[in-house]
Amino acid sequence: MTYKRTIGVVLFEGFELLDVFGPLEMFGLATDHFEIRLISENGGVVASRQGPKSVSDDSFQSAPAIDVLLVPGGTGTRREVDNPVLLEWLKARAQQAELVASVCTGSALMAKAGVFDGVCATSNKLAFAWACSQSEKVHWQPQARWVEDGKFFTSSGVSAGIDMSLAVIAKLVSSQVAEQAANFAEYDWHRDPDWDPFASVVSPFESA
Amino acid sequence: MTYKRTIGVVLFEGFELLDVFGPLEMFGLATDHFEIRLISENGGVVASRQGPKSVSDDSFQSAPAIDVLLVPGGTGTRREVDNPVLLEWLKARAQQAELVASVCTGSALMAKAGVFDGVCATSNKLAFAWACSQSEKVHWQPQARWVEDGKFFTSSGVSAGIDMSLAVIAKLVSSQVAEQAANFAEYDWHRDPDWDPFASVVSPFESA
Known about the structure:
The structure is a homodimer.
Chain A: E1 5-11, H1 17-29, E2 34-40, E3 45-47, E4 53-55, E5 58-59, E6 68-71, H2 77-80, H3 84-96, E7 99-102, H4 106-112, E8 120-121, H5 128-132, E9 139-140, E10 146-149, E11 152-155, H6 160-172, H7 175-184
Parallel strand pairs in A: 1-2, 1-6, 2-5, 6-7, 7-11, 8-9
Antiparallel strand pairs in A: 3-4, 10-11
Helix pairs in contact in A: 1-6, 6-7
């Protein structure tokens, strides 16, 4: 029987919907290889930035061992960079994890937690300056769909997390399984981590 | 003040994660124009096909008026095509809605409910024969990213729902707002409803 890796996804009030559920669509399609756990500080119901609410499977205290730690962005990151309980938990779990992946401004949380010291990383393009301001010890990459540096994967904004997750599946399982997941979801997978037409886009939205 | 349209999203056990949260990412980014309600038969917590659970905002009984009815697919559709309560509710709400949109095998539910009689519609490519078997009165389109026929929008599998939703935002609000949402989410929007490289893809996964 194939060993199933546990994907531990951190939820907090104001998480960005697609940062979480884009990757989980893909990991969930590779169902023989991954088990998904949604984890929040105190467990219970957590509202996304867009409104829809999700149910935590575990609290920080009750969460099982995590093989792949996934950290989303969203407006809630602006509050959580000042939450020492979350930052300490992320740091401890990141050290134990086989692989750590962040989407969008999730990298700002990891940077603030000190997880990305000396690591090449990226973030959402519309909140890039804010992400960079969380740590000078990170080698921030302003143009990238995603960045892989050892066991650390960081993606650009929102939908870039889907491409990154397929790259993670390809690395941990196989290219074939990642390809099958993308095809099943009829998803136009961008396989090149350097493909980034959004590096130069300016938006009237407030940052993520 | 801009009128906010209510997006009513139907949840059932075994809904496909990205069928729901891909579109809601985009509608949620056009936050001045749409309000999101997750609706299930009895309210409460509903588990997706991939595992993660969402919280309903309303039951069928308590749901408010719906401007845009969104129906996802997922393995749960195999059960729900035989649920007369759901089919009757979909039919009644579809008649009242300004616009009706389905993702993936959500179109099979709408076909079975009789909503798509005489309508051009599409569905997931890997479950296409099963979708077609729900009604001979639908003009099924085997090759399309999405199909627009009057107030009815239907998309192909999973991620195609994101492209369709951006087209819906462009129609109901403006192309500019849709473009802003896509850019914010760093999403490579496929604007051509006829773009469909997945029509010929065969997958080893069981159908959605």
